[in-house]
Automatic annotation (TrEMBL), chain A:
Entry GO MF terms: exonuclease activity
Organism: Algoriphagus pacificus
All residue ranges annotated as the Exonuclease domain in the record: 38-212
SMART domains: EXOIII
Record's protein name: 3'-5' exonuclease
Domain of life: Bacteria
Keywords: Exonuclease, Hydrolase, Nuclease
PANTHER family: DNA POLYMERASE III SUBUNIT EPSILON (PTHR30231), PROTEIN NEN2 (PTHR30231:SF4)
Keyword Nuclease in record: yes
From TrEMBL, chain B:
Protein's UniProt keywords contain Cell cycle: no
Protein source organism: Algoriphagus pacificus
Domain of life: Bacteria
CBS domain span: 176-233, 241-300
Gene3D superfamilies: Beta Polymerase, domain 2 (3.30.460.10), CBS-domain (3.10.580.10), Jelly Rolls (2.60.120.10)
Protein's UniProt name: CBS domain-containing protein
SUPFAM superfamilies named in the record: cAMP-binding domain-like, CBS-domain pair, Nucleotidyltransferase
Domain Cyclic nucleotide-binding: 18-121
InterPro entries assigned: CBS_dom, CBS_dom_sf, CBS_domain-containing, cNMP-bd_dom, cNMP-bd_dom_sf, DUF294_put_nucleoTrafse_sb-bd, GlnD_Uridyltrans_N, NT_sf
Length: 223, 648
């Protein structure tokens, strides 16, 4: 219904969005082992926790191939923001001096970067919700990429797939708590790049723990 | 600007050599190419015989065992900990791995792509040397050439301690020859030699019509390239000169010039207007110029000592010698040179002290004027290894005298001995806590008594006797009549030859001090007492080597070689099968001497107890490497002297 002039919620798809969607059609075979999986581990820093009113200030990510973190692929991008100002600076001490991308440039680079990789994040649903707001004006309403939430994965490794969330002390599954438990030094917290790096380290360890439990291919991981 | 992830990786790497030698740009380039992988205990990184991977490895956290397949199963060669670099064969020789790498703890590993590092190796000589010297873990340690290690350490140290050239009273005032002897490329060899002789210089610079340098011809070249090749003297110098010049700017700092000479093994460094060979020659710096610039040269100090009997002045000169020593050590001057220089200085002090003593007391004993005596240095000074003014060990032997002179002789020579000991104490040498000094009547004796002493130790090798032998057997005549010492030496070797089992006792003793291997993560440190948690470099590393060297040279009937590293050199000649090992042991000993002396100079003590916590990664590795010859030698001794069958 894109011809319908009154439907403003469905903007025209930009070329980079089409390109991205075309490449992300392929499904990952279920029997694929961890060593052959490609992940993008990401994190965002935002003005707040409400996807309705807050927005993304910066984005950090790094890729994992063959179960190893590819430092060369690490990115850290800052976004131009209508709400930029004192508020944000006070919360996260972001210095307004870094290379800042327009929303259009960011969207294009971001989609090209994630490609058809598996997206990983801690509480990744929130980050994706925030990122969706950015790409929406360019004609993308949802990310077709498969996703792994490191929080859910950690819980699953402890309690199994069918655990009752209400009985689980979720505070033990914050990024800080998990890093502490898995012996990952938490530095550079509250920068998107720093948190993405921590999450990537966490994923390496969670994947090993999963393999020990017999979870060793994509279909088992993606349950 | 590097993002936070690359920054994080770089921050870790920069704490450890060889990454600590990288410029920030190179470090960032390396860090940005790192791959990080997590392994669990028991996983393998690589196995012996596997082809080299395109990475080498840095342990970010955890621990890994490097082992070698032996007939009886894998044997652990090395234990890597945080910051250790291993698997570098891929980088250097692209040979298959010689060891297995198996994780002994859950570990995080940084993979460094070889290609990134190859670029750095090309332009960073420190890093190249670091690897060449085998500091990176995972090389079979005893096979590595420790002299490369020494060289590397010198260079690595050199630049960080530029200010340590304190021996040069004023580095800026170094005299550079500005009248450079030059000639054109078509000058004949003969003519060049004449020019050099006329100007009384050791080199001639070959220049083009703009006075830009083309090459250099030195005294040595005449020997190596002309005479030995029987080249006609009519050839032009351009055929025999060294081209590929290394040149520097005239305005470069002295330390830069000097280091460039050391690094490139240059005896002559050409200076040009702008520091390239595309500008006119303006000066030349020779190692002779450098030598002359040293205020505290050994020759100057020895000359000063020979001209004074003033105790305070002697003390002051000895202090200055220590400054020189520090400079030598920090700049990795060859140890046999350093040791001979310091020994010479100590010996001159002793001979001055002896003259002082005779002058003071001889007039009271005119009847003893013709009686010969000899002052013996024992222990480390006897072995010509005393760099620091550690405890003095010495004794005095005098000619056998007739019955009527016995009392006065023992009185007189005790006075002489005591006087010398006092001068030494005044010069800063601590007294021996065990009273093994020429001020102790027990150790001031006529030759016949000394012979009895030695016979007794050899025939009845009690624990005390073995202990004494380790001090007394290394005696060396310093002042007085050397014939007495010679005669004593002959006596000892006769006795040892007759009582061969004495060597088995010595061997047992040499075997008892275990090499400080067996620790992996730390050093074997003292468990209690004042020096708890310190590593006793003397007892644990140096003493075993001195004991082994003494034992083996004695067993060969070798006489008059006291110095531990010279003993090993000699042994290498005598036993070509083990020459490699003996040479390594000698090198190891030199390194230990240097380390101990530097430690002592730094903390103003005898340098014996080293705090492993305060050692840099590099020093730790170097120290560890010195241990491996000890256990190898002990195994040889065990078999050779049949210690397994020998009464315990």
């Amino acid at each position: 219904m894109s011809w319908w002039p009154f439907n403003s919620s469905k903007p025209v798809q930009k070329d980079f969005v089409k390109e991205y969607l075309k490449n992300s059609q392929k499904e990952i075979p279920g029997i694929r082992l961890f060593d052959q999986l490609s992940f993008v581990v990401l994190d965002t820093e935002t003005t707040g926790l409400n996807p309705e009113t807050d927005h993304v200030l910066s984005f950090g990510a790094v890729k994992i191939n063959s179960q190893s973190i590819q430092v060369a692929s690490a990115v850290e991008w800052y976004l131009s923001s209508s709400k930029k100002g004192k508020e944000a600076i006070q919360i996260h001490e972001l210095i307004g001096n870094k290379m800042v991308l327009s929303l259009a440039d960011f969207s294009s680079q971001f989609l090209q970067y994630i490609g058809n990789n598996i997206i990983v994040g801690h509480h990744v649903g929130f980050d994706l919700e925030m990122l969706k707001k950015i790409v929406k004006p360019f004609g993308l309403t949802r990310f077709p990429n498969p996703c792994i939430d490191t929080m859910n994965l950690a819980i699953r490794l402890d309690y199994g797939l069918r655990a009752d969330r209400n009985l689980i002390p979720l505070k033990n599954y914050s990024l800080d708590a998990l890093c502490d438990r898995y012996g990952i030094k938490t530095e550079d917290r509250h920068t998107a790049g720093g948190d993405a790096f921590l999450t990537a380290n966490l994923l390496l360890k969670l994947l090993k723990a999963a393999e020990k439990k017999g979870i060793n291919n994509w279909s088992l991981l993606n349950k | 600007m590097a993002n936070v992830i690359i920054h994080r990786v770089a921050e870790f790497l920069k704490n450890f050599p060889p990454f600590s030698f990288l410029s920030p740009e190179d470090l960032e380039a390396v860090a940005s190419k790192v791959e990080i992988k997590y392994f669990e205990k028991g996983e393998k990184l690589f196995l012996q015989g596997e082809p080299a991977k395109p990475h080498f490895f840095v342990l970010r956290e955890g621990a890994i065992e490097l082992s070698e397949n032996k007939s009886g199963g894998p044997e652990i060669k090395e234990y890597c900990e945080q910051g250790d670099v291993f698997g570098v064969l891929a980088l250097l020789g692209k040979r298959p791995y010689v060891l297995n790498a198996i994780f002994s703890e859950d570990s995080l590993v940084y993979f460094i792509p070889v290609e990134v590092f190859e670029l750095i190796l090309e332009h960073n000589s420190k890093v190249a040397l670091y690897f060449a010297a085998g500091f990176a873990s995972g090389q079979v340690v005893f096979k590595q050439d420790l002299s490369e290690g020494q060289k590397a350490r010198g260079l690595l140290r050199g630049e960080t301690l530029d200010d340590s050239l304190l021996i040069f009273s004023d580095p800026e005032s170094i005299k550079v020859s500005e009248n450079v002897l030059c000639c054109k490329g078509n000058t004949s060899i003969q003519k060049a030699a004449q020019l050099m002789t006329q100007a009384d210089v050791s080199s001639i610079v070959v220049v083009d019509s703009n006075n830009f340098p083309l090459g250099i011809l030195t005294d040595k070249d005449f020997r190596t390239r002309i005479v030995s090749e029987a080249l006609s003297l009519e050839h032009p110098v351009s055929e025999v000169m060294t081209s590929n010049l290394i040149v520097k700017r005239r305005s470069a700092s002295f330390s830069e010039l000097y280091l460039s000479m050391i690094k490139n093994r240059l005896h002559h460094l050409i200076l040009t207007e702008d520091g390239t060979d595309q500008s006119p020659v303006v000066g030349i710096l020779s190692d002779h110029d450098v030598l002359l610039s040293m205020g505290n040269s050994p020759a100057v100090l020895i000359h000063a000592l020979l001209n004074t009997f003033d105790l305070n002045e002697i003390r002051e000169i000895r202090d200055r010698a220590e400054q020189m020593l520090r400079y030598y050590l920090e700049n990795e001057v060859a140890m046999d040179f350093v040791a001979s220089v310091m020994t010479e200085i100590n010996d001159v002090i002793i001979s001055q002290a002896t003259q002082l003593a005779i002058r003071k007391h001889s007039k009271d004993y005119p009847e003893l004027e013709q009686v010969k005596f000899c002052f013996l240095a024992l222990g480390s000074e006897g072995r010509e290894e005393q760099l620091l003014r550690t405890d003095q060990d010495n004794a005095l032997v005098y000619e056998d005298v007739s019955e009527d002179l016995k009392t006065s002789a023992s009185e007189y020579f005790l006075k002489i001995g005591s006087e010398i000991v006092e001068v030494l104490i005044h010069s800063g040498f601590s007294p021996c806590p065990g009273e093994i000094m020429a001020s102790n009547p027990k150790w001031v004796q006529p030759l016949a008594v000394w012979k009895e002493y030695f016979t007794d130790w050899i025939v009845k090798p009690t624990e005390q006797a073995i202990l004494n032998s380790s001090i007394f057997f290394d005696f060396r005549p310093v002042a007085g009549s050397k014939i007495l010492a010679e005669s004593l030496t002959d006596h000892i070797y006769d006795e040892v030859g007759k009582k061969h089992f004495f060597l088995n006792f010595l061997a047992k003793n040499a075997y008892m001090n275990p090499a400080p291997l067996g620790f992996f993560k730390g050093f074997m440190v003292e468990k209690s007492g004042e020096h708890s948690d310190h590593f006793d470099i003397k007892a644990r590393a140096m003493l075993p080597l001195t004991d082994l060297a003494r034992l083996l040279t004695l067993s060969h009937g070798l006489v008059r070689i006291n110095n531990t590293f010279k003993r090993f050199e000699k042994l290498a000649e005598l036993e070509p099968n083990y020459s490699e090992l003996f040479l390594q042991a000698g090198k190891a000993y030199e390194i230990l001497m240097r380390m101990r002396a530097l430690e002592g100079l730094q903390h103003k003590n005898n340098g014996r107890f080293i705090d492993p916590e305060k050692l840099g990664k590099l020093q730790k590795q170097l120290l560890k490497n010195t241990f491996s010859p000890i256990s190898e030698l002990q195994e040889i001794v065990k078999v050779r002297f049949q210690l397994d069958y020998f009464a315990k």
